[in-house]
Amino acid sequence: MSTQSRVFVGRLAGLSVFDPLGDQVGKVRDVVITASSRRPRAIGLVVEVPGRRRVFLPMTRVTSVEGGQVITTGLVNMRRFEQRTNETLVVAEIFERQVRARTEDGEVIDVTVEDIGIEKQQNRDWVISRVFCRVGRPATSTFTRLTRRKGESFVADVADVTGLLDQSREQSVERLLETYADLKVADLAEVIHDLPPARRAQVAQALDDSKLADVLEELPEDDQVEILAGLDVERAADALEAMEPDDAADLLNELDPQQAEQLLSRMEPDDAAQMRRLRAYDDESAGGLMTAEPLVLGPEASIAEALAMVRREEISPATAAVVYVCRPPLETPTGKYLGLVHIQRLLREPPHAPVGAILDKDVQTLAPEDALGRVTRLMATYNHVSLPVCDTDGRLLGAVTVDDVLDHILPDDWREDRHDVTEDLPVVTGVQDG
């Protein structure tokens, strides 16, 4: 089967990879290159397979790059890709790197790498042959990247470019985070997931506890564990405390028991006790799904107080949809659970009225041991976005929200499809591993 003799990496990234039988193996996420005496060689592809695991596919196994797809021969080694010290990732490390290039007029100028062309040689090696350059510094926004005038870019032979593999040209973490400052947390997590491990650790160190906690909640378990392992114990404990309790408990369950206990010992006693309660429940039960920090008020609280609570920016939409009303204490496990109030009802009633006067008492409660199947059936049947979880004494233990249920019923690799809606994000700029 034939293959294109030259392809630009920017067009290669995102293509589906198929085996000889036509079954999809995964998607191309990057190209691995190494320096050589003549031209840098492309030695393989980083392919993301189901489960968001990234594996290495040698270029010698690629039989075709045509028709918007990559065809490979033989079995793919499913071991997680680990970048070696002499290897460079084109998308994650070369794109947006500042280099020096010779123009057609012979002038040597500062340019930014936009794309890399790789070419197949007669000996079946793939080498870097062309560099698509843009005059000036890296663009710092999607708008800038989309509004460049024609004539600002040109293609140079790789022999006319210097500094392409110069690791000292790494972009600062601060500049990288500035570039992505306006991204939603889920999209920022996607960017961080694409970084080499060492760079991922640097970015994690630079984020404040709140932002790091938000990002951790959006990352695959492998990335979560890796990032947490790279932090000192105090910082890791702070990040866990800033996470949603149910997400933090899930992450603790992925760690070595000794490491998890060490982190719990560094947390505030109340937070640690809450985590231990959540970790005791099965992952596929209501107790394992619930957050231990729903919005809770006493019956005498006013509707104005309830609206002020749900208006807080840090509250997720699913959590803000419902206020639970209980007798003191109002921290979980609470006093007797009385009922709940939906946000729409709050908006229809006078602000001075007490929430205890407008309770919905018909919503069924869950027991912490109830299986995921019962939770999903109740939500689907009655169109609930949040359900209370109570113990045998009628105390509120927490609440299961629809976003937590979706995380458990969707396939493990559901986040892989996010690449299809984030293709227009600015590319990772000038990063490196090590």
Question: How would you describe this protein?
Answer:
The protein has 434 residues and is an alpha+beta fold. It folds into four domains: 6-85, SH3 type barrels (Roll); 91-171, SH3 type barrels, CATH 2.30.30; 174-280, MgtE N-terminal fold (Alpha Horseshoe); 296-409, Roll (CBS-domain). The chain is built from 18 helices and 18 strands. The strands form three sheets. Strands 1, 2, 3, 4, 5, 6, 7, 8, 9, 10, 11, 12 and 13 form a 13-stranded mixed sheet that branches. The chain has a three-stranded mixed sheet with strand order 14-15-16. Strands 17-18 form a two-stranded antiparallel ribbon. A hairpin with a 2-residue loop joins strand 6 (62-66) and strand 7 (69-72). The longest helix has 11 residues, at 269-279. Mean pLDDT is 87; it is low at 139-151 and 416-434.
Q: How many extended strands? A: 18
- Provide the helix percentage: 25-40%
Domain module count:
4
Separate helix tally: 18
Q: Whole-Å distance between the termini?
A: 38 Å
Q: Regarding CATH, which class of the largest domain?
A: Alpha Beta
Give the structure's gist in a few sentences:
By secondary structure, the protein is of the alpha+beta class. It contains 18 helices and 18 strands.
Comma- or semicolon-separated keywords:
three-stranded mixed beta sheet, MgtE N-terminal fold, 18 helices, single chain, 13-stranded mixed beta sheet, alpha+beta, 434 residues, SH3 type barrels
SSE topology sketch:
Blueprint: E1 6-8, H1 9-12, E2 16-18, E3 24-34, E4 41-49, E5 53-58, E6 62-66, E7 69-72, E8 87-89, H2 90-94, E9 98-102, E10 108-120, E11 126-135, H3 142-146, E12 153-157, E13 161-162, H4 173-179, H5 185-193, H6 197-206, H7 209-218, H8 221-229, H9 233-242, H10 245-254, H11 257-265, H12 269-279, H13 286-289, E14 296-297, H14 303-310, H15 317-320, E15 322-326, E16 337-342, H16 343-348, H17 372-382, E17 386-390, E18 396-401, H18 402-409
Parallel strand pairs: 2-7, 14-15
Antiparallel strand pairs: 1-10, 2-3, 3-4, 3-8, 4-5, 4-11, 6-7, 9-10, 9-13, 10-11, 11-12, 15-16, 17-18
